[in-house]
User: Fold these one by one.
Assistant:
Number 1:
Amino acid sequence: AAGVIQSPRHLIKEKRETATLKCYPIPRHDTVYWYQQGPGQDPQFLISFYEKMQSDKGSIPDRFSAQQFSDYHSELNMSSLELGDSALYFCASSLNGAGARGYGYTFGSGTRLTVV
Amino acid sequence: GQQLNQSPQSMFIQEGEDVSMNCTSSSIFNTWLWYKQDPGEGPVLLIALYKAGELTSNGRLTAQFGITRKDSFLNISASIPSDVGIYFCAGPYGSGNTGKLIFGQGTTLQVKP
């Protein structure tokens, strides 16, 4: 079965550079969630989209922005990168707001961002 | 704000042993989720619990939704080496029912063959 696809898997950037992370949800899934997981930490919610509209926002820095496109894929744009942005970034998707009903959802394998 | 306290933080056990970990919160949750994360991979949903008192099994895994709705536990019976990983409890939080999850701090499990 198709899973959540994230690209790239690994990314190395220098401080103050920009990065774009991409997420392709499971086919027909209309909701996307982004999480950030620092080393040895639990995943922290950043932002979510339902039917191409932002549905919720967590502890996402102002330097980050995201959107969901007409084909439901999502991109997380990160500017003025800082060393502390080094982390695993996960995308997850769900169908028809199932995640909102607490059914849990499927995570991608993540993008490991290293800022040097 | 809401917080999930997960324990133990880590466990090192012998293959074949049973394992138990739990999660508590000062707030009520309507859903408890248990995920497993392998190194460098995304969390994988193991068990979802939707009703207070519910006991659910998935193979060698058993999880329960506490009666008070403020706690949950996960048991793994007869552990095997592939059980190694980080186990997280999680639950939907915040207003608006958007599905965002809060996670516990994780329990790192190591199994000695």
Number 2:
Amino acid sequence: GQQLNQSPQSMFIQEGEDVSMNCTSSSIFNTWLWYKQDPGEGPVLLIALYKAGELTSNGRLTAQFGITRKDSFLNISASIPSDVGIYFCAGLPSYNTDKLIFGTGTRLQVFP
Amino acid sequence: SAVISQKPSRDICQRGTSLTIQCQVDSQVTMMFWYRQQPGQSLTLIATANQGSEATYESGFVIDKFPISRPNLTFSTLTVSNMSPEDSSIYLCSVEDYGGYTFGSGTRLTVV
């Protein structure tokens, strides 16, 4: 099935640094979601975006719905050790708004 | 948001056998979704389960291999049939929830 292109694949950063990751598609999306998955757990929703250009924050996390509706990015400011995990973008494409499609994931490692 | 209980959380199974995974939601939902997450990979939608009708399967997944039941609006099961080592994955159920999608904690299946 279709997957969204997510980059970078992995990141190794120092505590306190900012992080940016993005997700792109060849199709138009109506909704973008960002999830974090910890080992042994299911993905947990961080931020949901519903309109082109929308910029939404959740604490140190900020995400934007790209103006072309084909991309989204997630920023994490002042990273801390508990930010470690795998981050997934996910979206509902305009051609099928019932089917959530996932990105390939970004593995984040934070060193103290 | 909805709370999803998934059982079992993990299992080790012999090849050729079948395993049924249960998903219980604390509220009534129209659609329930089953995903597979192969080791180190992203999530791939297996099928969508509606109460009172047959599940809709994604390309590459068939009912004989992954039969699904949806007896009521709060419960669903996914069976992984005639298992082989290639079926070793995390299987997750999900529901749509207030504009996002909530996931269970997953069933980690190892086939030996």
Number 3:
Amino acid sequence: QSELTQPPAVSGALGQRVTISCTGTYSNIGGGYDVHWYQQFPGTAPKLLIYVNNNRPSGVPDRFSGSKSGTSASLAVTGLQPGDEADYYCQSFDSTLNAWVFGGGTKLTVL
Amino acid sequence: EVHLLESGGDSKQSGGSLSLSCAASGFTFSKYAMAWVRQAPGKGLEWVAAISGGGGSTYYSHSVNGRFVISRDNSRNTVSLQMNSLRVGDTAMYFCAKDQGGSCGTDCYPTGVDDYWGRGTLVTVSS
């Protein structure tokens, strides 16, 4: 059981917008620790998608955006494309564990 | 171009030991913290350990603390993970990751932002 809770799966129609939530506690997200997001396609290594809550590395389309409020964070994907089908993970630091933690991951399906 | 190449994955019996290595290139290795992240078959990502750029600070998940040791050789641009007292639950693909880094003081501490990843090396532990 992860300290960061994500929905196991989300889906959206081609071209639509979806959000993936990441719910934490006051020992991680709510404690002011930054949230990062990773994208992973089957059989490949994860890729950094969003860092420090809402920043995109170069090369990541602006269709991907992140936000954080209270003990939760969200990843939004607009203009859904078939190539967005992947697993998405949030990550933050947990002060109780004194370690970085990942959410359980969310599988995004484009209908 | 940043490149990370893991090696050392193998099949071991419970209670055994294994050492993983990650060869890095394309950046000033000693200026960046490094991390190991694992993924059990069909499961999500699990952060395992991290080490500062100078090697003076190490960090571990509770699940491996006391059994695994992360180290680095800045003269060879490699980071290693010594895995002892292996358990069936350690079975996973192990990824090496470069920390994005920030400002370095006396050392370059991990930020938790892993901006480059290797392809991984598979560790299988059987009972």
